Every structure is written in C-alpha cells, then in structure tokens.
C-alpha cells in the first residue's frame, strides 16, 4: 500500500504544498512565489514574507490536494519544514501542519529544509546508492555533506561568510541588475567573456573544504568603484561572466577534491544555485574526467518546494521519526538535528 504525504514548505518566500506518494511519485507540487513582491525591496523582507504565507497557505494546500485528486482522508502523514529559515515564515507552515495533523489524527513529520533540498535528488532517482557527496548551494547555505545512509550527514565543508546564492544577490544588487541575483547574472553572463576581468578565488588553507565568497564580493565592489573614479564604462556582461566563473570554479574544485578524498561514485547537487547551468555543466565535466557522475534535480526542484520536503519526510516516516505536537519553528536548525521545543532528539550532524 502506498504512503501518501502532504507537505508544506514556508521557510522563506515561497509558499508551497505538495502531495507525494512513496517518496517518489509527485502527485502535485504547488508553488506560490513572492519574488515580485520582494523585488522592489532588493531582497526578502521577513515580515512581508510571513504575511503573504498567511494569505496563501490554505489556498495552496487546497490546490495541492485538488491537483492530486485526493482528499484529506487519503493522506498517511503531514510533513512540514520547521527550520532553518525565517522564523515568522516557518511558523506559518508549522502551525498549519500541526493543525491538520492533529485534526486528522495523522503522524506529523518535521523536516529540515536542507535535508529537503538534498532529497530532491531522490525524486529524480529514487534508487540512488550510498555513499553520496552532496553540494548544497543556496542563498543561505553552501555546504559539502557526506551521506553514508538515509538520515546520516557528515559536514565536510561550509561557507565561512557569504553563501554562494547570497553573493550572487549582493553582487547583482551592487551592479544594478535587480533581484533575485542568480538568474539575472546567469543570463547576462552568456553574453560576456569570463576571462576579460580578473577576479580572485578563495581556496583557503590547503586541504580545507570550506568556502569563502566575501572577498570576491568585495573585489567586484572595488572594481566598480575604481571604474567609476576613472570614468570608465563597465562591461556588465563581462563582469557577470567573470564573477559567475569565479564562484562556480571554487565550488567545482572543492567538490571534486572532496569526492576524491571520500571515494564516492556519485555527487548530488542541491539548493537554488544548483539550477545554475554553468555550475551543473562544469561539475559534470569534472566528475566525468574522474569517472564519477553528477545527479541534479530539474530547476523547479532546486528552488524551494514542498515535494522535496515530502520526499525527505517519507524516509523519516519509514524510520518512525515523527514529531510531537509541540513542534516549533527552529530558524537556526542544523542538518541532522531533531529539535522539538528546544530539546535535541539525537544529532547526526558531525563536524569535521
């Protein structure tokens, strides 16, 4: 008998509900984006995001059930993102999920947002074999994660300052390209020469799998400032291409180095920046030279969505990893933690 899970995702500025069967068959995946709302501010405004989630959560849930052709009585569990993310935004999804699970007498599954991004790959290839190396790249996170099995995560590297997606957004805003930065820089870079403008790449100390993008961001700002002082016109396409190449180059080099150290055969991409074509193609080429393969979700499953949360929840459901109705939003939740009302319920997130 199939296990059907309704999942909610409200960690940032997408209100999403999805119905997934057996962690692999997407029956519906409704996403309501707030990009147009936040574009005029140049980034996500937490209070505005929370209010929009309140307006939309009931509607997207109803749409997800209708699109799946199911009713509440057909569900086996309710899942929800409870961290990390914006606390007000998370609370909307958590409150709605708890109300539904309690009212329907169904199990409640709390899911880490980053775990959801990783499990988007299992929606594409349910039979992925462990061990896996996961590169998680988004607006808030840039992590290298080693997975030996479902629910087991070892942190190999992380950003020491700006996340990759955050760097894209900040540089786009500085150049005057608008928000969100990732897609607009990628489009502009196609018309540019990535070698025309020299930009730094931070590899840090030898053997480190950590990342740092703040220096690159500062280099772009300084380049624009010096050009302005000299009255020179900046070729934005060349700048976008050079910046994108500098970010993706470090991501690819560090990921391949980590893959060689761990000996994994498969690398998976996750997070919003995983939709970047330059990153996907460069990593795939490098992995192929090493006789490895890269798996990446389609772009719609790279950005925030509830289908990935339902997939992660399915594997927690099989382990009986259910959340109590005291589940609360945990904005700083780490991958592998189970934190309910501030208490740890096991920790699999190992540093180093």
Structure description:
This protein is of the alpha/beta class. The protein folds into 2 domains: 4-118 and 302-351, ATPase, nucleotide binding domain (Nucleotidyltransferase, domain 5); 130-296, Nucleotidyltransferase, domain 5 (2-Layer Sandwich), CATH 3.30.420.40. 44% of the residues lie in helices and 21% in strands. The protein contains 11 helices and 13 strands. The protein has helices at 35-39, 46-68, 87-104, 113-124, 164-175, 181-189, 214-230, 236-262, 277-289, 299-302, 306-319, and strands spanning 4-9, 14-21, 25-33, 77-83, 108-112, 132-137, 142-147, 153-158, 266-270, 293-295, 337-340, 343-347, 349-351. It has a 6-stranded mixed beta sheet, with helices on both faces. It has a 5-stranded mixed beta sheet with strand order 3-2-1-4-5, sandwiched between helices. The protein has a two-stranded antiparallel sheet with strand order 11-12. Strand 6 (132-137) and strand 7 form a beta hairpin. Helix 4 (113-124) crosses helix 11 (306-319). The longest helix is centred in the C-terminal third of the chain and has 27 residues, at 236-262. It is globular, with a radius of gyration of 20 Å. It starts with a strand and ends with a strand. Mean pLDDT is 92; it is low at 342-352.
Strand content: 15-25%
What are the secondary-structure elements, in order, as H or E?
Answer: EEEHHEHEHEEEHHHHEHEHHEEE
What is the CATH H-level superfamily of the largest domain? ATPase, nucleotide binding domain
Structural class: alpha/beta
Q: Name the quaternary structure.
A: single chain
Strand order of the main beta sheet, please? Answer: 10-9-6-7-8-13
Helix content: 40-55%
In angstroms, what separates the terminal alpha carbons? 41 Å
Q: Return the average pLDDT rounded to an integer.
A: 92
Radius of gyration: 20 Å
- Overall morphology: globular
User: Which stretches of 5+ consecutive residues score pLDDT under 50?
Assistant: 342-352
The beta-strand count equals 13
